[in-house]
Amino acid sequence: MAALIGAAALVVTAAPAQAAAPRQAPGTEVIPGTGTETPALVSGLHEAADGTGSAADAARTHLAGKESRYKIADPRRDLAPAQSVRSGADETVRLQQKHRGVDVLGGQYVVRMEHRDGKRTVTGTSGKYFTGLKVGTQATVSEETAIQRAVTATARQLGGARLDKGDIAPGKGVRTASAKALTGASHGLVVLPKGEGLLAHHVTVRGTDPATGEPVQREVYVDAKAGFPLLQYSSIKTFGAPGAKAVAAPKAAGARGSGGKGEAVAADDFPGTTGSGVKYDGAAVPLQLYKDASRNEYTMVDYSRMWGTSKNLISTWDARGKDVGETSGKWPSGIKEFGSPTPAFDKDATEAGAVDAHWAAGKVYDYYKKAHGRDSLDGRGGTINSLVGVTEFGLPYINAFWDGTKMVYGQGDDEYRTLSADLDVVGHEMTHGVVENSANLVYAGQSGALNEGIADYFGNAIDVDAAGMAMDDPDAGLLGEHLCRTKTPRECAFRDLNDGHTTSKNFLGVGFGTDNGGVHLNSTIFSGALWDIREDLGRVLADKIVYKALTAYMTPLDGFTEGRNAVLAAAKDLKVSGKQLNTVKRSFNAHGIVPGWENALGVDSDQLLGKLNTAGTGVGAGGGWWTTSKSNDDGSEPYSVYAGRTDGTGHPKLISPNDGRFHVYPATDGKTVAWVAYGTTSLDVLSRPLAGGPIKKLYSSTTDVSGLRIEGGVVAFESMDRFGGRHVGYLKPGDREPTWVDGGKYQLSTALPSLHGTKIAYAKLYPAAGTYKLGTEVLDVKTGKTTLMGQLGEPEGIGQTGVNGSGVYWLVDEVATDEGQMAVRRANPDGTGAADISKETGPGALFPFDLTVSEEAVTVDAALPDTEYRNESLPKLWQFSLDGKAKNRVSCNRGEQSSPVAAGGKQVVWIDGTTGYTDLVTRTRPAGLCG
C-alpha cells in the first residue's frame, strides 16, 4: 500500500529536482509542495487578475502568468474548473488537475481572489498539482476485467479470512455470499499521483457485507496496465468505526401545494406549518412540518428554511424495517416521510429517533447559514434527507453514516438510542456533506482522519453551543455521550476531543483495510488541536478559522501537516492578532502536529525490508528465508517479489522479473519461491529457485488466485471463480493443471490452505444429511487420503488453517450470537483429540484474522475485546505454545500487525504499520504481555 502517513495521505510521490524559487514580494509566504515543483500554499499575495470574465478563467490566467512560481505550463489544458464559490467579495476557485485529459486523484489547485468594483485581486493559492507525471493514458486492461477484479478484491477483503455457512446458495450449491452480493460500476480512468503516475480504472463496488450486514460502498483503483487492485477504501462516512458500538430517490426541488396534491402556492406563502415533538432527552421542541392532504397527515417535511432560496426541503423518512444494506448509495423502496394525524408527534416518533433527527437537521442547517452564510450542505440550497430506524439483519444497527446523498441513522437497542438522538452525531454526519462539497477530503488515511476530525469538530461545536455548555466543561469534548440509556456520558461517548492524543505517542499506523487507514482511530489528533483552539480563541473566531481553512484552503489529499498550514493561513486571512496566531500554533504543537512528526514513531521489532508500499500482498517464510512483495519508495512501480534471510544477514534478492506485471502472494520453503503475477488477461502462478535460475510458469488462470504455500515442490493455493466459488488446488512438480482438493465441484467449497510436507489442511463447506456443514480437512498429496478433523461443536465459520508435524490447527466460530470471537483449535494428525488452545468464550477470547504455526508455537493475528476502538483493539500478534498453556504478545509495537508467518521456532515475520509505512519486520521471541 502507499505510505500511510505523509503529505499525500494516500499516495507517495518522489520530488523532482527543485528549481530556484523566484523572488517574492514582501509579506508573501510560499510553502513548497511535496513531490512536486508547484507550491503547496502561497499566501500574502496582492496581484491583479482579470475582473471581467469568469472566476475560473481569471484563476487559470493568473497561474499561467506566474509559471516561474507555479511550474504549471498550460493551466487551461491541465486544470479544469471544478467549483467556484463567491462569498461577499471573496472568490474561491477549485481546479481539477488533468494529465493528458485524465483526472488526477487528489490533484486539485485552489486560487483565492477578492472581487470588488469589477476588479479581481489574487490573495493566495494552495493545493496539489503534480508536476512529475509522465504516465501514458492508454489502458491495456479492459473495463470489464477491471470491474471483475475490483469485485473479487472487495469480496476477498470482506470475507476471505474465513469460510462461513452463509456462503451457501440454496439449490445452487456453494457460492460466497460476498461475491454474490457485490456489483461494480466503472467511473473511467484516473491517474494516481505516485512517481510518474499510475493509470487506473476507478470502480465503485456496492453491496452488503455478508458477515456483518453493513452496506458496502468501496472505491477500488485497478491498475490499467496489469489489472492489480492498487487501492481500495470505503466511501461510506460513518460516525463510529466499523464494528464499533458505537425506488428512485425523491426529487430535490418542486413545491407541494398546501391545499392538496399539485396545488400552486404563492411565492410568499410557503406550504408549511409548525408542529412539535419530544426528543429523547424529554425536551419538547418545535418542528417544521407539511400538511400532506393526500395522506391526511402532518409530515416531517420542512419547507421554511430554504423557501427564500432554492425552495428545497429538509425531510425525515421512516426507514424502520429496512436493512442498512438497502440504504447506502440507493433509495429503499416504499418508505415515507414520518407522519402524524396531528401536528404534535407522539412517543412512537420519539423512540424511532425521528423527532431528534428532524429537529437536529434544522439546527445544523441554521448553524451553517447563520455562522458561515452557507445555504445547505452543498452551499446551493440542496435537499437534506434523513433516513431513521434502519436495522442490520433485522437487529439494531448502532451507527450512522453519510453516503454522499443522505444521512442514515440506525435503530437503537436496550442500551443505545438511535444515533440521531444526539445533536453532535447529526452535526457530524451533515458536516461530511459540507466537506464533500468543499475540500472533498478523500476518506482514507490521513486525509480521511482530517475529514472525520473536521466533522467531529463542527458536530460537537453545534451541540455544545445549543446546550449552552461552557467550553471548559470536562464533558464538552465528548461526542455521542447522550446516546446511552443507562451509562454515564463519559462511559457512553464514542470519542473525546479532549482526550489528549498526540501524533508522536498515539498515531496508529494501519492499512486501508482497517478503519480506512485509521480515519476514526487518528481523527482526534487533529480535532483535538482544533478543539483547543476553540477553547482558547472563543467559539465564533475559531469556527470561522476552521470553516475558512476547509472551504478555501484544503484539498482532497491533505494530511495533518497541510491541515495545520491551512488553519494558520486562514487565521492570517481573517486578520487575527499575533498573540492569537501563536495560540493556534501552540495548539498544533501540543498535539504533535509539527513538520516531521512522523519520525518520532518507534518499534521493538527488527526491520527486514522497509517501506514496502504494497497492499494485501502477503508474506512467506521457510527454511531460513522470507519473501514478500515490494514497490519502489514512491510506490509507482508494479510490485516485485524479494527474498532474504530471516536472520537479517545478507541483502534481499529480487526474485521476480520487472515486466510490468504485479508479482504478489509469495511463498517459500527456503529452496524455491512461488508467487502470482497479475497480467492484463490472466493470473500466472510462477516459481524460481532461491539459488537462481529460470522462472517457471506453473499455472495460468483467468480468475483469482491467492494464499500460496510451497514445500518440497508442491504448491497449494486458493482460487475464487467469477461466481464466488472458493476451491483449494495444488500443483506437484511437472503438473500442468492443478488438482482441486474438492474436485472443483460447485456444491463444495474449500479455502484457506496450509501446507506441511505432503499434507494440505484447509477449511471445507460440504453437504451432509440434507444440510451443509463446515469442517477442517487434511489431504495427503502422496497417498490421496483425506482426514476430517474432529470438532467440539457445530462450526458456523472456519478461519485460517495451519499444520505441522504434530497436529492440525485452525480458527473456528461456533457461537453465532457473539461479536465475532473465534477459538484457536487443534487436533491430532488423525483427526482425534480436538481441543481449544484458546477458547471462543470467556475472558481473553480473541477476534482472530490469521494463523500460522511452527513446530514450537502457534501465532494468531487477533484483536482483543475492548470498550473503545483504539490501539488495544487493533490486530496484534499473539503466540501460544502448542498446548495453549503459554500465551504472549509477539511484539508491543503500536498500530496494526498483519500477515504473520512462522519462520521456525518462535520467530515470526510480519508486515507492521507502526511507522506509518508497511514494513517487513521480525522478532525471534515473544515480547511478553505488553502490559
How would you characterize this protein structure?
- The protein has 931 residues and is of the alpha+beta class.
- Among the domains are: 99 residues, no CATH class; 91 residues, Nuclear Transport Factor 2, Chain: A; 182 residues, Roll (Elastase, domain 1), CATH 3.10.170.10; 166 residues, Neutral Protease, domain 2.
- Helix content is 18%, strand content 33%.
- The chain has 16 helices and 53 strands.
- Strands 12, 16, 17, 18, 20, 21, 22 and 23 form an 8-stranded mixed beta sheet that branches. A 6-stranded antiparallel beta sheet has the order 1-2-6-5-4-3, with helices on both faces. It has a 5-stranded antiparallel beta sheet with strand order 7-43-44-45-46, with no helix packed on it.
- Helix 14 crosses helix 15 and helix 15 runs antiparallel to helix 16.
- The longest helix is centred in the middle third of the chain and has 23 residues.
- The radius of gyration is 28 Å and the shape is globular.
- The N terminus is likely disordered.
